[in-house]
Write a structure and sequence with these properties.
mainly alpha; 170 residues; single chain; 4% strand; globular
């Protein structure tokens, strides 16, 4: 058989692209919210979030991370951070959280009455003295927007719902 005929018989298999099913993970409203967030971070409006965009966004939130921190955040993306990659990273983060019942059960270990409530002061003490210890600033940040009533009772059932599903306003 001639070389030309042999070449025709050999069919090259093209490497298949890995298709992203990330858009199937979220409904249209969620995708729109992520797109709005992405556009707020993309200060240069070039369709990509770079290190400077991220630093500017964090500065607007009152944080001043060092270059090492920002580099660490940027390195979570395996390539340029466009909207699809942004959505993929959020999808991985959201799917990487524990199931709702696991989170509730973790809080429940410290709820002696089984009421779904832990006093704010007790929870602060637990978070700053046990396991992966939180700083006071981290606890304050967690408590912002958390369901804590005027008597300092932290509703961990409602908090878990917020963690997994967002607030009613969202």
């Amino acid at each position: 058989m001639s070389q030309a005929k042999a070449r025709k018989k050999i069919i090259k298999k093209r490497g298949q692209r890995a298709t992203s099913n990330i858009f199937a993970m979220f409904d249209q409203a969620q995708i729109q919210e992520f797109k709005e967030a992405f556009n707020m971070i993309d200060q240069t409006r070039d369709g990509f979030v770079d290190k400077e965009d991220l630093k500017d966004m964090l500065a607007s939130l009152g944080q001043e991370p060092d270059d090492k921190t920002v580099d660490g955040m940027m390195s979570e993306a395996p390539g340029p951070l466009n909207f699809t990659m942004f959505l993929t990273l959020f999808g991985e983060k959201l799917n990487g959280t524990d199931p709702e019942d696991v989170i509730k059960n973790a809080f429940g270990c410290f709820d002696d009455e089984g009421s779904g409530i832990i006093h704010e002061d007790r929870l602060r003490e637990l978070l700053t003295t046990m396991g992966d210890r939180f700083t006071d600033d981290e606890v304050d940040q967690m408590f912002r927007g958390a369901p804590i009533d005027s008597q300092g009772r932290f509703d961990y059932v409602a908090f878990t719902r917020i963690l997994k599903h967002g607030t009613k306003d969202e």
